[in-house]
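Cross-check.
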Amino acid sequence: MLLESSEEVRMFTDMMSEGLIVIDNEGKIQVYNQKAKEIFGIANNGQYYHDRGEISPGDIVIIGDNALGIDDGNLNAKKLEVLGIYDESIQKGDALVAIGVYKKGNMAPVYKSLKAEDIEKTLKLNTKYLGVDIGIIIDFVNKIITIQVNDEKYTMNYINSIGHMVIVDGNSKKMKFYQSNGYTARGESISDILAGKSYRAKGEDTEVLGVIGRDIFEIHRGSSTIQEFYEVAKGKNISYKDQFKEINGFPTLCSLIPLDKEGKRIGAALKVEDISEIRKVINERDKALQELEKAEKELKVKKSLNKAFPDIVGDSKEIENVKKLALKAAKTNSTVLILGESGTGKTILARAIHENSERKDKAFVHVNCGAIPPNLLESELFGYEKGAFTGARSEGKRGLFEIANGGTIFLDEIGDLPIDLQVKLLQVLQNRYFYRVGGTERVEVDVRIISASNKNLEEEMMKDRFREDLYYRISVFPIIIPPLRERIEDIYPLVENLLPKICNKTGSEPKRISAEALNLLTKYDWPGNVRELENILERAVILSENNTIFSKHIKIRNIQGKVESDGIVPLKEEIAQCEKDALKRALIYYKGDKKKAMKALQIGRTSFYEKIKKYGISYE
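Predicted model, tokenized:
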């Protein structure tokens, strides 16, 4: 024996804050203090209780292994055959999640594997297997493997690699074994268990693994540090202090000390300090710094987007994505197709793309294809020669494409373009030239085309109302603006942006909106989108008598067409309120000049003064 008073030594060493392992010159453990047992999981009784036992045929085996063959007892494809997994493509280092029945070939296993070079953030497997709900997640980012069996979770953290396993009794469908830290020391790796080796009980008051007197390699297998520790105990002259070493997958700071007596080597001592928590803190710090850097980049991107598109208001991810796409579109000359319901702001977006492009100093020509009569649309777009048709100007006329030359032409509501003009537009897109109506001279243009539609153009193609070849030409870079009902969080910034503009437009004093009124706006479906919001706010500004808009001033309609407000105002009162507000706005706008106010309101002198008196309006 290296140490004779073992009880006193145990009491003293268990008080240490570092782990201490002492072996004799034959590699037998003489001291293994409490802290060392905690570091290497030997004293870990586990989260849940299970009895001592061994795996039996018919048991359900669940495995989560982030690196096959590294820290699982050299698990390999051959050893997995006991679970019905016959797959030679599974190699050392692969990540594996698997569920199978032990030594019962009539039940097919369920598994997934990933090569090391293909590893993503997580590897997941969720299924109901023989009536048991099972989930396995390997989180490669946070280095956690979780196995869930029905409502119970069995979680293990790792530094480099780990082999996690849970066994469910094939008859009772209850957990009979789960893996926990220290499985290498206990000889309970996945390979050990699958080979039929017994496992120890876990839970409170279960027997702690006895290590004193055992060979060091029984407790710590496959570690170069332990091999070095053993060689020093045998006589090799090596010593060091506070060096980083990994033992059984645990990162530690180690100090190795030879033990000599009367000039003869009698053993060695290894002091270990667990730095997994320090490593964890460092990783958390690094992750926090990465998140901060990411947030700073996102803020920078957001600021640049808001600077580029100040009139596209909203904080939602949907609108931010629209801005990102628009900025990319602005940097190219590709044709852009903007899709979205009426009132979503397609025209604003088209102009913003132009103003952020290299053509920003050239013309931006807006053409509403649905607002121009079909028989005039061709001559408006492409112009005409003198005498081209009855009523044509004698000198002819330049078309909008010519006016937009060098700049951008915005074809709004392109879905309303007649089929014959769709053909001509396609030719312009392909050839970059056209002929005026009644003309024979080719007109070449360099123009960027942005189109927009509130129609589903794919449905229009199915109904033969829109040419398929034109659709693919104009939709090189599609951008979809989501309706307001899908980004309700944008209501507040929109109101904040629109309200001052509306007050200025109507000649009203600055107004704010109450929380109740704002809450009412967020509950509406907004079929008319931002345009409808602007109209409702303008009406609310007119109706409110003081500087606050309350919910009673918000007049919106639900799906059934009923007015959603605090109450229905009689028509007579509604009209009177509108008259009063109109008079006040006119007097404010013309700074008390009654003549100008009367003229603007198109109202007679007598009627004007009667209403001023009736409503008690001060105009001085």
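The chain has a mean pLDDT of 85. The chain has five domains: 6-39+212-273, 60-194, 275-308, 317-482, 491-615. Passed to J.P. for a second look.
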